[in-house]
């Protein structure tokens, strides 16, 4: 009779556990990370008799948490990748919209500026057009500065978000460690796991994966270890390793992320991947820094090229021809010393105007090796290195080794670098040639009369004392192209070649060979004969006067074309009354379409458009990948829901089943009680 009663009681208790578990599932249907639970039952030990065994009821083995590690891991992985792409796309699209704006971008400002240069070339004596050029120059400068300020605002926003997310990572890490400790205390029997605590921990890890990619390893005591980045431990059992925000060793305003590994603080910024934090770091290091560098490269290249051409011209603000000054102030190359340096003298780094086409964006790290008495410079954009040997001659130079020029400068990538003396071993510097290029560009000229639209040298047919040309042929001389303006300006002074006048007289030898004899101030320069034998007479032939003995400092190039007759003469004189001359203004206007950047392969507009196109293409690829990853994440969520999600219809059916089982078990107990009462009544009679 007792067995009959106990059997009913065991069913009653099992049904109670089932109803409680089903109620628990239903109550947590909207709880993030909750995995549905299921009662696992088994029969109790039967009583054996000679004619067979009689069952004694049921018992609850465990409350099983329906979860699968591969599904949970897949959900974390896809979640982390989606958050990375989503944040990267959000931030990249903001930069893309900025640089590609047809009204607020750089393209219209550059076009308007060079249009103003052309207006000056069309009417060089007009003060109004000159003033317009200064106004457009300032507008271009303002546009560069505005764009750079917008990018800096984005950078400050990203830096702030990185610090906030580091705090969130640390908070989640501490929560996971606390849960590890609780789970370890209750994880005495694998048949009785602390299901709700396990769910809470998995949810915290999932939230962590939204911030950064994680690696999770299971321990035998039920705890887990969580690593980030390249395997750096974040949570080990109940211990945590904080993600700290530290200062960049070259730029204290730029936050970096570090972790305390043993007794060392290790910077892990470059190792963190995935999640929204990984997306922000990737955006900052890739899109934002590269865009600032590229825009700064355009600003620096345009400023340097225009300055060099403007200085080849002259203006007449004080009546006499004066050499043009820099049209723009160009930003200095940013050179930062490493925080570990001890009172180290910085290297001298300048933009090399002669090699402006080689200028690149990005940063260069410079480190001194005292053992080999050499500096190593590494271009961080492609990780290429060059060894700089300050105390070696040219014979030591090679593909990856460089020695200084006679003036002590190393020249590479559009820069001139002079190394400091007395450096200590391991001293480091960061060179960023174009980082400040956009915000550092400024207009230098303040008055329209300072615009050097004229050339210091005027060309034309030689004339007699009466101002008449005696040329009879069909030869022509083009405008003078000035190279090194310093020597040309010296030639303008009294007694200089341009002050005296340079004459090129066409002559012909008996064998038919023709040449130009060079005269200065009417005196023949012996042996100074410039052969005239062009392949195409319409195109003619160029001559640089600095190749003539005695005129080495006169870096002026002229082109003579056509068919001059013997005795025809052409003059190159100082341009002393050239207020209306537009030769140099035309040369400045031609810079707009000249292939100056990218080793002579791109104009300013082409380089900027290429940057905009590359950024737009990258933004589109990120958007496509984000959308694809969103689909994968949705599939991973559905895959997890299939096993671990709470289905209310299923739970309602389970509740009815357990309710019926409970009622049936209660009926067994009632029947057992009635039988027992009947037996008692029989005994009493």
Automatic annotation (TrEMBL):
Span of domain Flagellar basal body rod protein N-terminal: 5-34
Domain Flagellar basal-body/hook protein C-terminal: 642-681
Alphabetized UniProt keyword annotations: Bacterial flagellum, Cell projection, Cilium, Flagellum, Secreted
GO biological process: bacterial-type flagellum assembly
GO molecular function, one term: structural molecule activity
Chain intervals for the UniProt region annotation (Disordered): 454-480
Compartment annotation: Bacterial flagellum; Secreted
Major location category of this protein: other
Domain Flagellar hook-associated protein FlgK helical: residue ranges: 93-328
PANTHER family from the UniProt entry: FLAGELLAR HOOK-ASSOCIATED PROTEIN 1
NCBIfam families per record: flgK_ends (TIGR02492)
Family, per entry: Belongs to the flagella basal body rod proteins family.
Protein name: Flagellar hook-associated protein 1
């Amino acid at each position: 009779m007792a067995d009959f009663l106990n059997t009913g009681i065991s069913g009653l208790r099992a049904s109670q556990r089932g109803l409680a578990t089903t109620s628990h599932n239903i109550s947590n249907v909207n709880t993030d990370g909750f995995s549905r639970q299921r009662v696992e039952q088994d029969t109790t030990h039967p009583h054996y008799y000679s004619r067979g065994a009689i069952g004694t009821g049921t018992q609850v083995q465990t409350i099983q948490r329906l979860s699968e590690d591969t599904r949970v891991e897949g959900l974390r992985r896809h979640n982390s990748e989606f958050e990375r792409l989503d944040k990267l796309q959000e931030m990249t699209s903001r930069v893309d919209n900025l640089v590609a704006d047809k009204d607020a971008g750089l393209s219209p400002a550059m076009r308007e500026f060079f249009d103003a240069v052309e207006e000056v070339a069309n009417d060089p004596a007009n003060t109004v057009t000159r003033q317009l050029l200064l106004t457009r120059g300032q507008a271009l400068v303002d546009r560069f500065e505005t764009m750079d300020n917008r990018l800096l605002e984005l950078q400050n926003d990203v830096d702030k978000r990185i610090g906030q997310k580091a705090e969130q990572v640390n908070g989640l890490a501490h929560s996971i460690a606390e849960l590890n400790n609780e789970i370890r205390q209750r994880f005495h029997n694998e048949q009785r796991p602390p299901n709700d605590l396990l769910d809470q921990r998995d949810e915290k890890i999932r939230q962590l994966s939204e911030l950064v990619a994680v690696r999770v390893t299971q321990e035998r005591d039920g705890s887990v270890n969580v690593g980030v980045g390249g395997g750096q431990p974040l949570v080990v059992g109940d211990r945590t390793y904080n993600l700290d925000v530290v200062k960049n060793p070259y730029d204290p305003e730029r936050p970096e992320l570090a972790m305390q590994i043993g007794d060392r603080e290790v910077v892990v910024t470059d190792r963190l991947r995935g999640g929204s934090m990984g997306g922000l770091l990737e955006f900052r290091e890739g899109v934002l820094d590269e865009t600032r560098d590229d825009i700064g490269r355009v600003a620096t290249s345009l400023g340097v090229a225009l300055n060099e051409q403007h200085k080849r011209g002259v203006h007449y603000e004080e009546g006499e021809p004066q050499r043009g000054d820099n049209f723009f102030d160009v930003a200095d190359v940013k050179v930062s010393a490493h925080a570990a340096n001890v009172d180290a003298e910085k290297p001298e780094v300048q933009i090399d105007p002669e090699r402006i086409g080689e200028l690149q964006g990005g940063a260069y790290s410079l480190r001194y090796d005292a053992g080999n008495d050499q500096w190593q410079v590494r271009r961080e954009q492609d990780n290429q290195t060059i060894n700089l040997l300050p105390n070696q001659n040219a014979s030591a130079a090679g593909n990856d080794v460089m020695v200084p020029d006679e003036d002590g400068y190393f020249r590479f990538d559009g820069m001139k670098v002079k190394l400091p003396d007395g450096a200590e071993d391991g001293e480091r510097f960061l060179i960023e040639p174009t980082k400040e290029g956009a915000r550092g560009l400024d207009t230098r000229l303040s008055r329209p009369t300072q615009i050097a639209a004229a050339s210091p040298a005027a060309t034309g047919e030689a004339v007699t004392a009466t101002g008449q040309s005696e040329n009879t042929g069909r030869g022509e001389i083009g405008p003078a192209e000035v190279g090194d303006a310093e020597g040309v300006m010296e030639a303008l002074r009294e007694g200089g070649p341009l002050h005296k006048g340079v004459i090129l007289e066409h002559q012909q030898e008996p064998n038919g060979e023709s040449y130009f004899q060079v005269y200065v101030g009417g005196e023949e320069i012996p042996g100074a004969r410039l052969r005239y034998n062009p392949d195409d007479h319409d195109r003619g032939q160029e001559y640089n006067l600095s190749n003539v003995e005695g005129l080495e400092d006169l870096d002026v190039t002229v082109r003579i074309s056509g068919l001059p007759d013997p005795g025809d003469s052409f003059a190159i004189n100082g341009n002393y009354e050239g207020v209306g001359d537009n030769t140099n203004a035309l040369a400045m206007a031609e810079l707009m379409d000249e292939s100056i950047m990218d080793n002579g392969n791109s104009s300013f507009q082409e380089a900027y458009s290429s940057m905009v196109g590359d950024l737009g293409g990258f933004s589109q690829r990120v958007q496509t990948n984000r959308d694809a990853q969103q689909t994968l994440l949705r599939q991973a969520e559905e895959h997890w829901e299939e096993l671990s999600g709470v289905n209310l219809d299923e739970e309602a059916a389970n509740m009815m089943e357990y309710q019926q089982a409970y009622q049936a078990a209660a009926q067994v107990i009632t029947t057992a009680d009635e039988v027992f009462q009947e037996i008692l009544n029989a005994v009493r009679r």
